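Researcher: Before we compare anything, I want clean individual predictions. No alignment, no superposition, just each chain on its own. First chain goes here; please echo the sequence and then give the structure tokens.
Model: Echoing the first chain and its structure:
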Amino acid sequence: MFPDGHLADLEGEFAAIGHNNPPEPIDSGAPTAHDILLVREDVRTLKEQLSNPTPNLSVVEHKKHSILSFGLKLAGWLAERFTKFTDAALVTLAPVVVVKATNIMPLIEGAISAVTRYLLHLPH
């Protein structure tokens, strides 16, 4: 089953966001601390129902659906963060890749060398 410690860690991560209490979340798609509290209660209720010899199947189904919905929301949010991180990394690395792929570095070095020689031979 899902360890309670993981939910507590996740709750701590999102509770720290917006520590200056902005009026609304910065990212409306992000899971909130409230969402995590609700899913934590759903996990607790589901554990209770499953430990019962005669669990209420409608409650079990409802809680399973709620927990899975939260998991999908969290997975989607994480995928967006990962995509943004990857995009930023690609933008940062693009010039390096272009220089290596086109073997333009010797031309850049030659141009810098020529400018340096020219500047060194200017009359002072």
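Researcher: Okay. Second chain, same rules.
Model: Second chain and its structure:
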Amino acid sequence: MLLTLAIPAISQQPADIQEEQAALQQAAGQSQDRVESLDDETMSMVSAYNRELSRAEELQTYNDNMRQLLASQAAERERFNVELREVEQVRQAIVPLMVEMVEVLDNFISLDQPMLVEERQARINQLQSIVTRADVEIAEKYRRIMESYLIEAEYGQSLEAYEAQIPIGGVERTVDILRVGRVALYYLSLNREEAGIWNPETGRWSTLSDDYLGSLDYALRMAREQAPPNLVNLPLWTR
């Protein structure tokens, strides 16, 4: 009886084992699938994390650059404001200086030899006019003043002939004027019969000897580039 009952039990064991193995294999497969799925998800999350980390680093670099740029702009703005304040200070100081420069030039011309009187006085009048005008930039005012100073300086290094009216013996007469730098100023009558030199001591014209008529006429033609350069004999006024 016992033997009969045991035989069926023994005969069923392999099937149970196979089923159990199949179940285990199925569970193992499912577990593997879950592991692979989790693996893929983990890799995806790691990849996303790395991307976000790289993006965060890029944003950090961008923010650092922006902070440096803003700091640089703030420093530049402050420097610009300082320069504006300095320009305003210079503007306030330079206007009185320019007025003084024009006055000095005017006084100098009035004390100088009577050469190109109308031209030089017209230049002074223009300077006095623009210095007080609000529609003329300070830079332009200063340029015009310095230009006038340079013109006056060049007078001392040039030879010039021109026609002008001067008082001789209480009468205004048209004559040829010869300017030799600022060393001497001569006149020669248009008929070439009378010559003179400016006397800085008396502030008047003094008549020269007829011996200088030819020399003075030649010097005038040299100044007008009508005769070749040559030595001429002319007197210099001395005390």
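Researcher: What stands out in the second chain?
Model: The chain has four helices and five strands. Additionally, The CA atoms of residues 75 and 217 lie 69 Å apart.
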